[in-house]
Amino acid sequence: MWPDTRLCRLLGVEHPIILAPMAGTTTPEMVAAVSNGGGLGSHGCATMPLDRLERDVEVLARSTNRPVNLNFFCHSPPEITRAQHEAVLEALAPFYAAAGVTPPEGVPKAPYAPFGQAHLEALLAHPPAVVSFHFGLPDGDAVKALKKRGCLVFSSATTVAEARWLEARGVDAVIAQGWESGGHRGVFLEPENDAQVGLFSLLPQVADAVKVPVIAAGGIADGRGIAAAFKLGASGVQIGTAFISADEAAHKPLHDEAVAAGADDSTRISLAGSGRPARAHRTPWLDAMTKVGTAPFPLMYHYTAGLQAAEAEKHRFSLYGQSARLAPGGDTGARLAALVEGARRALA
């Protein structure tokens, strides 16, 4: 059925469909459902403490004997000066006042760390089939250590230059992330100058530029999108928004309602939530925040957590992609089956 089986053979799976590792949304039950259904389940581990990571790995080991992917962030440790801190507070003062939120006190500390030695040791002790990264890669020794333990290494590219950079450093597959994707952009070579390339332009150029399998991500939520990705050179697809409201997902306030109402124009890219560009549900607050200077990622959460909480029930701050309206319904297994069947029809 699949026009390109390289990814299936590499992973040992029936379907080259990867659950996107949505930090804060994926659960072990959700990941296992995709893996047990013949795809590759991915768990967003970037924001979780190590004890939670270890517990979730144990749950996954009991829930599936199929390949799974654990995903981490590789951002630089952030620094902020007192002057920057005060400038952000001053810019946000009107929004705090309007929402009735007390401004946060003290210079912020990062809510979570980038991939480091402690993460590496945890993975080497219990190696998953795949370890994937966002915002580049850890140092070369860490990549070599993971591959020596039998882990495949994937990472996201938002440009051809990033894809070539990743291949030169030993990744086993490149995830071509188009502008349509929900959540954080994976841009890392020039994070201050996102090229904003859409998937239909990015994918065939990345496929021509690298020899490793290319996984298409961004705006794919039904069988037609999967078939189109293969026509443009993909060996597989990574899908998040089509699974984001499945029964097994971790559900946030009004998140499901936002996704259910999602349309082609209901999201926007903004640095306002975290300090890095991310696609989220459009709200009056998020639109206004585009004019506000931000703190480095992920320190911006220190300033916006109260605003997001205050606005959650009214404005439905949610991260999702541009094709939410195309997503199938049901639990995770039913959604995967619908995507496979839709792709079968479209490819036929």
Summarize this structure briefly.
This protein has 348 residues and is of the alpha/beta class. It has helices at 6-11, 28-36, 50-63, 82-99, 117-125, 140-148, 160-168, 199-209, 223-231, 255-260, 284-289, 300-315, 332-347; strands at residues 17-19, 41-44, 68-73, 130-134, 152-157, 173-177, 183-184, 214-217, 236-239, 267-270, 278-281. An 8-stranded parallel sheet has the order 1-9-8-6-5-4-3-2.
**What's the architecture of the largest domain, going by CATH?**
Alpha-Beta Barrel
Overall 3D shape: globular
| DSSP strand tally | 11
How do the helices and strands follow one another from N- to C-terminus?
A: HEHEHEHHEHEHEEHEHEHEEHHH
Mean pLDDT: 93
C-alpha-based Rg, rounded: 19 Å
Distance between the termini: 8 Å
State the name of the first-level CATH class of the largest domain: Alpha Beta
Order of strands in the sheet with most strands? 1-9-8-6-5-4-3-2
CATH topology of the largest domain: TIM Barrel
Specify the CATH homologous superfamily of the largest domain.
Answer: Aldolase class I
What does the main sheet amount to? 8 strands, parallel
SS content category: alpha/beta
Ranges where pLDDT stays below 50 over 5 or more residues in a row are: none
What is the total number of structural domains?
A: 2
Relative helix content: 25-40%
| Helical run tally | 13
Strand content: 5-15%
